Amino acid sequence: MPVPLLVGSALFILVLGAPIFLAILAATFGTFELFAPPMPRMVLPQRMVDGVNKFSLLAIPLFIFAADIIARGQIGSRLVAMVESFCGHVRGGLAIATIIACALFGAMSGIGPAAVVSIGPIVFPALMRQGYSRGFAVGLIVTASTLAMLIPPSVAMILYALQTNTSIGAVFLSGLGSGVLFTIVLCVYAYVYARRHDIATDTRATWPERLKKTREAAFALGLPVIILGGIYGGAFTPTEAAAFACVYAMLVEVLIYRKLSVAELFRISSTSAGTIAIILILVSAGTVLTYYLTLSQVPQQVTATLSGASDVTILFIINVLFLVAGMFADPNSLIIVLTPLIYQAALAAGIDPVHLGAVIVANVALGMVTPPFGLNLFIGITTFRVSYLDVVKAVMPFIVLMLVVLVLITYIPAISLMLPELMR
Hints:
GO molecular function: transmembrane transporter activity
Mean pLDDT: 88
Transmembrane segments: 6-35, 55-75, 95-124, 136-162, 168-194, 217-235, 241-260, 272-294, 314-342, 354-374, 394-419
Largest sheet: none
Main location: membrane
Low-confidence stretches: none
Shape: globular
Number of domains: 1
Number of strands: 0
Distance between the termini: 45 Å
Membrane topology: Multi-pass membrane protein
């Protein structure tokens, strides 16, 4: 009775239009008051504080701030120009350059929507001029931006690692394998599309031109190299890497590229603070929910229900659960709320927690572009001034590609586990 009441009341509060964190907190506190064993009422507020009182959690607000700085500056445009100089002459070169630029942007920011608003306005007009359809251009940019959720330093991966006490570095490496696979699949699709529709190509850039574009993007390229190299070289932790990313991005955009002023940095920090507050409140609310579910032995009941099921079956159930939920909720909420429910059952079935992280993050990345409420869909509507129906039609072929990649990641563990095992 307590758990159905908790779920039902949370859904009812959501239907009334309340934020998801408020629905979680109100339902959990109410159910706890009615059914929990006698204990001090201060337990839940203490759990809320404990949920955000973690050093490693600092990486999330720091990477968000760095992503917002990068999105407002010149780093994205210089990356696009450099990549296009190398592959613009290839069939589908501009589309491929867009995909690779989104992947590189993800390696700096960890936030998918930031790539849409940073790289999208740069490449969208160019894609249209070269003969790509509006639908293809919108679908490509909106979908390729989700690479930031797969390629480290991904905020979604940090949340998963904190929820499950898994190594952040190992989860990052698992996402790198998944991100590279998805990048390759998108590039192949862009090439096939360009050949089928006879899309024009750019003239081949000379090596001096390529070297010039590379020099202009050198500081932009330095950010992912230093971040990932520092983490896996043992120079600093992911949290320290996030702090370095903020300082580096500010120095590059203000002093070197001179795109941003100090006053603009303050305005950006205000925007970042709103996003950070939402995520941290969600983490805090999710900690209370997890505590109550653990107290009610819900994860153990789920494990008992699924006992005897194969890892193939459990992975299928996890995919269906996250895919359906991803149509209606944001990625951070899904990871915080659903991961504790299925984690013990997955471990009992012998699923590696690092592999499970790659599967869950791939699911929530797909949820970013899945109708009816995929976040990137609405960002695409405002960025490219298209209707909701148009952007949904645009992403449909890419959703099919993402489903194929999800199946490969799910049932070929080597894709996500190869790099973590090499690092061990």
